[in-house]
Structure formats: structure tokens, C-alpha cells
TrEMBL record:
Species of provenance: Gloeomargarita lithophora Alchichica-D10
Organism superkingdom: Bacteria
Protein's recorded name: DUF4935 domain-containing protein
Amino acid sequence: MVKVYLDTSAYNRPFDDQTQPKIFLESQAIAIILQMVETQIVEVVSSSVLEYENSRNPYSIKQEAMNRYLQI
């Protein structure tokens, strides 16, 4: 199985301004990757750095969403 590592900015991309085409496309790519993880097509690799960076996120909604992603 292919393993992928997503950094904190990738997990938070869906919360960025979606009116910009580049950001919209990157958000769609992240959504597809996460669907592939859920259906066990690819495996996501986590790290203590991701957990630390997320714990420092001042936005609780983003922090909770990333926590859910990291549990997949």
C-alpha cells in the first residue's frame, strides 16, 4: 500500500479562501487523498510533529478537524 505524509498546511487547506483557483484545486486534492485513506487505497503517515503543530493551532474548529484526520 502506498503511504503518504500530509503536512499541517495540507490538512488546513480546506479552511483557506476557496475563491482562489489554486487553493480550491489543492483542497480538492486533499479531499480525494483523505477519501483514498478512508477506503484504504493509501495509508497516511502521521508524526509527533503534526500532533504538536496541531496542538498549537489557535482555531478549535481546524484543530478538531485535523485531530479527526489524524485518527483515520
